[in-house]
Write a structure and sequence with these properties.
Layout: E1 7-9, H1 14-20, E2 25-28, H2 34-39, E3 47-50, E4 60-62, E5 66-70, H3 75-79, H4 82-87, H5 89-95, H6 101-106, H7 109-115, H8 121-129, E6 132-137, E7 140-145, H9 146-149, E8 150-152, E9 155-156, E10 163-170, E11 176-184, E12 191-202, E13 205-214, E14 221-222, H10 226-230, H11 237-250, H12 261-284
Parallel strand pairs: 1-3, 2-3
Antiparallel strand pairs: 4-5, 5-10, 6-7, 6-10, 8-9, 11-12, 12-13, 13-14
The structure holds flavin-adenine dinucleotide.
């Protein structure tokens, strides 16, 4: 199918772009989702405001405490960026699971987050890492935690006149490790269940644990009560097994053509045990 008629606008600065976006004119990043929706006439904006001509939005930088990833940084550039690989390795690890390389050369970090697909890896990773999103509009700027930005399936805190400019991701501390694990039907496909985790430790003792599920509800879900199972302990396979039972008891279960509710429960139990083990093992092998 072809999209309904629309106007194509190509601002050269963020200020120009902010004059143009609004109720009937949507930002265009790489078009990987938006153009497909327009072709199906699920989206019929009167105008597209192409952000590709604004170089400032592609910048990736290190300000000491945070890695700042421009919303228009392509997923491919982000996953190979040395700052990202060294300081927020979970972001690079996660992006490698998104579709295929060709998709990631066009798809952007900001477009992925603004699209807020419940099966996407990146929103869950940003929630896990405690990232903040920076939004701009003619009215001013604001920053919002990832956990508040993703409000539901394809639903975010973005107002129609706002543009996501960059994402500030806290740098991984030497005492932290993180990992991602997902179940997919074929390489490059969307996950039918996924988990991301971060663990902090002091010597052999766990100081902090966070585990976030995706592809299960309408938005990333942080498992509750994990600290009481893992914190203050020397972790081992018994602790991970106990944590995975907690996950299985909380993961929202539903039947669809990919899996039954019971299968999903089993998948989340296995994935969470594995992701915690992998995260912990990264301490042992000295990997980031
Ligand atoms: C075949 C295929 C497989 C895929 N597999 C996966 C996968 O496994 N996992 C996964 O997570 N994703 C997957 N994707 C999604 C893809 O990686 C992109 O992240 C996603 O489609 C967004 O694309 P985009 O950056 O081109 O944004 P666009 O499609 O251009 O925009 C998406 C939405 O975000 C809005 N938007 C974009 N940028 C901004 C901004 N800066 N500020 C405010 N609003 C903005 C747009 O208006 C639109 O509503 C897949 C896509 C395809 C086509």
């Amino acid at each position: 199918m072809r999209p309904a008629t629309f106007e194509y606008l190509a601002p050269k600065t963020l200020e120009e772009a902010l004059e143009l976006v609004g109720d009937d004119s949507r930002p265009l990043a790489g078009g990987q989702s938006l153009i497909a929706l327009m072709n199906l006439r699920f989206a019929t904006p009167e105008a597209l405001v192409d952000l590709q001509g604004i170089p400032d939005l592609t910048r990736i930088s290190d300000d000491g405490e945070f890695i700042r990833i421009g919303a228009m940084a392509s997923q491919a550039d982000t996953e190979t960026n040395s700052i990202v690989l060294n300081s927020v390795p979970l972001v690079a690890e996660c992006i490698r699971e998104i579709g295929h390389w060709q998709i990631r050369t066009r798809g952007t970090v900001g477009g992925n987050l603004a699209h807020s697909d419940p099966a996407s890896e990146l929103p869950a990773v940003m929630v896990t890492l405690g990232a903040h999103y920076h939004l701009a509009s003619k009215r001013g700027e604001r920053k919002i935690p990832a956990v508040e930005f993703h409000q539901g399936a394809y639903d975010t805190a973005l107002d129609p006149d706002e543009i996501l400019t960059h994402i500030a991701v806290p740098k991984q501390k030497p005492t932290e490790r993180s990992a991602l694990n997902e179940s997919v039907r074929a390489a490059g496909a969307y996950a039918i269940a996924g988990t991301t985790s971060i663990l902090e430790r002091n010597n052999e003792t766990c100081l902090r644990a966070k585990l976030v599920l995706f592809a299960t509800g309408s938005k990333p879900y942080e498992v509750q009560g994990l600290n009481s199972v893992l914190v203050g302990k020397e972790l081992n396979s018994g602790s991970f097994s106990e944590a995975s039972e907690l996950v299985a008891s909380q993961a929202p279960h539903f039947d669809d053509f990919h899996a039954t509710a019971e299968q999903r429960k089993q998948i989340f139990r296995a994935l969470s045990e594995r992701v915690l083990q992998e995260t912990w093992q990264k301490f042992q092998v000295g990997s980031s």
